[in-house]
Specification:
40% helix, binds ligand C6P, single chain, seven-stranded mixed sheet, 2 domains, globular, 405 residues, four-stranded antiparallel sheet, 17 strands, 14 helices, alpha/beta, Aspartate Aminotransferase, domain 2, Aspartate Aminotransferase, domain 1
């Protein structure tokens, strides 16, 4: 499909909404993306025509639902180039996937083992590891970043040693937009025998990671950032690690055999999928991946880079405006403040003009502490945004500045 922006926008019913009498300008895509009609139709079709529990019934509806759910798993496997479909575990989202891995490692890590996170993580990729350290006595170390919001790899190298067991890093920072050099981070961690978990919550709507090429051990993401529904995501784990980790939750689906004396567990992926999953969500995630691939990630990246470049240039023309996250490799996120004005006030005024941005610490307080700021205004662009919408943002920010100065 060629990149026809108007045709793409027509796929998203919400984009024709008015907010406070103004056309909606949705620039909070890093929080969650909007959903195309194709994904909405997929959800309606599931509940209208073949809603049933999966892996359980011999009846036709159950088989249809099971086939569609497993087909979605295979689609996701192909999209990310995982070696096996069973290495794709359906989760409730990124946060769930990270907690699942952290819970597993609470039975593996020992006192004095070291784990490494980066300075630009979302709280989801900090708090579970702190809890893990409390339980096991492992030590948490942090890869620092520089003023541009770029990780200092030479410092990372100094942290790595034989005691390092795990490294956690986001592929893309939600607050800064920085794309981290994860291939290099993984390669260096593997040299000391450490496994790496990549938080892909902010990457997969912009770029298409190749799990086998990256040689990543764990990769987590959420469907809702990729035009799919909320409440579903995936945890990729290499087969050998999946076999090593204990189950996360006990219940139906994750067992091989149960007696009152002993339970044996199912193999991958079911071992980590206790209970009735978000069946419709998994199937709709597959539809969202089809939708994105139909547009093509090359075209998505090209358009988003144009939006990023234009928004950066135009916003920097505003006196007193500072952008956080100025590294050379970024996705289409612009986090900024205007001297002397609280980000919340800017967010409130631009909303009155129909523009949705996020304000605050973006669940990444250590980044805000690093810059000694309470938060930022974050405009995050998707492939369906336009240059005219960037203009609307810039004009609204100028207006907010006038009112608040
Ligand atoms: N960031 C944002 O506005 P969940 O909520 O589980 O789908 O994703 C959590 C998460 C984990 N890691 C990163 C890098 C993220 O950006 C997010 C979600 C949203 O930035 C909501 S806080």
């Amino acid at each position: 499909m060629s990149f026809n922006l108007q045709k793409i926008r027509n796929d998203f019913p919400i984009l024709s909404r008015k907010i406070n009498g103004y056309p909606l300008v949705y620039l909070d895509n890093a929080a969650t993306s909007q959903k195309p009609q194709q994904v909405i139709d997929c959800i309606v079709d599931y509940y209208s025509n073949y809603n049933a529990n999966i892996h359980r019934g011999v009846h036709t509806l159950s088989q249809e639902a099971t086939d569609a759910y497993e087909a979605a798993r295979q689609k996701i496997q192909t999209h990310f180039n995982a070696k096996e479909a069973f290495e794709i575990i359906f989760t409730a989202g990124t946060t769930h996937g990270i907690n699942l891995v952290a819970s597993g490692f609470s039975e593996i890590l020992k006192k004095g083992d070291e784990i490494i996170v980066s300075a630009m993580e979302h709280h989801s990729n900090i708090v579970p590891w702190q809890m893990l350290c409390e339980k096991t006595g492992a030590i948490l170390k942090v890869i620092p970043m520089n003023e541009e919001g770029v990780l200092i790899i030479s410092e990372y190298e100094k942290l790595l040693n034989i005691k390092t067991k795990l490294v956690f890093v986001n592929h893309v920072s939600n607050a800064l937009g920085t794309i981290n050099p994860i291939a290099e981070i993984i390669e260096k961690a593997h040299r000391v025998g450490a496994a790496v978990l990549v938080d892909g919550a902010q990457s997969c709507s912009h770029i298409k990671p190749d799990f086998q090429k990256l040689d990543v051990d764990f990769y987590v993401t959420s469907a809702h950032k990729m035009c799919g529904p909320t409440g579903v995501g995936i945890l990729y784990m290499k087969e050998e690690l999946g076999n090593k980790l204990p189950p996360y939750q006990g219940g139906g689906e994750m067992i091989a055999e149960v007696t009152f004396e002993k339970t044996t567990y199912a193999g991958l992926p079911h071992k980590f999928e206790a209970g009735t999953p978000n069946i419709c969500g998994g199937i709709a995630f597959g539809a969202a991946i089809d939708y994105l691939n139909n547009i093509g990630f090359e075209a998505i990246e090209k358009h988003e880079n144009e939006l990023l470049k234009y928004a950066t240039e135009k916003l920097l023309e505003i006196d007193g405006l500072k952008i956080y996250g100025t590294g050379p490799n970024k996705t289409s996120v612009v986090s900024f403040n205007i001297e002397g004005i609280h980000p919340y006030d800017i967010g409130t005024i631009v909303d009155k003009l129909g523009i949705a941005v996020r304000t605050g610490h973006h669940c990444a307080q250590p980044i805000m502490d690093f810059y000694k700021i309470p938060g930022t205004v974050r405009a995050s662009f998707a492939f369906y945004n336009t240059l005219e919408e960037v203009d609307a943002l810039v004009n609204a920010v100028k207006k907010a500045k006038m009112m608040l100065s």
